[in-house]
Amino acid sequence: MPxxxxxxxxxxxxxxxxxxxxxxxxxxxxxxxxxxxxETANQLLVSLNGVIxxxxxxxxxxxxxxxxDSALTASxxxxxxxxxxDVLGVQGVTDGAVSTNxxxxxxxxxxxxxxxxxxxxxxxxxxxxxxxxSIDANNIVTTPSKPMxxxxxxxxxxSNPAVFSTFVEITGWASTxxxxxxxxxxxxxxxxxxxxxxxxxxxxxxxxxNYRFFGMYHYDGSTYTAVVTNYAxxxxxxxxxxxxxxxxxxxxxxxxxxxDSSYTSWLAGEQRCSFTGYLVS
Length: 281
Hints:
This protein is an all-beta fold. It has strands at 13-15, 26-28, 30-31, 34-35, 44-48, 51-52, 59-62, 65-68, 78-84, 134-135, 141-142, 148-159, 167-180, 184-185, 188-190, 195-205, 212-219, 224-232, 239-249, 254-260, 274-279. It has 2 domains: 13-84; 148-279, Jelly Rolls (Sandwich). It contains no helices and 21 strands.
């Protein structure tokens, strides 16, 4: 119900302590000797040299400081500063009255979110466009991109140092299907991020005698370590041999494939060998 007659005044109106102009633009506001903190420059009525100043244009506030747009001199006169009412606590806000523009950038933090949505704080993207992560109505999570590589068919090879005297590394591939994150480096899978990777490598053996060897190796910049090694018996005319596994890698680590150099029938043909790796988590 509206008031009959003059409405009661809400908030205090104060003439702040006198200020003496000098060669500076910044002046500390006080009331009764204590620091005074205006909520906004629009709350202040400031007279300088007999002229009322426009808030935001002629002056601003920062904390308890009044800041003119340019430095004054000792010959200037700050006639008075009046605070036009204190900002009072709001008891209730009309539904829909708080818009996006009324919320300061960065004001909503993870600490202010309910427990069920705390995970939002962990979603980030350095991209200037697009969506970092999405969850559809069936709770299927998708991301725009993830480090991955898939190649097939031997193109070139070279002796691999410090693994076996007979071990030959594949250094080139005939076809590259996928290479997201530039994971394919000189025929090897190089991890761009630290995490757990899914790796698989397969090779085909042509007709030949004796045992055949196939290996997948991890290189950390100084040491080669066997990830998986397989041998195949020559009882069969032709067969494919390989392995798939999950493997932890540090950013910059490499995985390479190779075979026993005693037999040239390995990895013949574009469709008969493959190498795949991608980030799982």
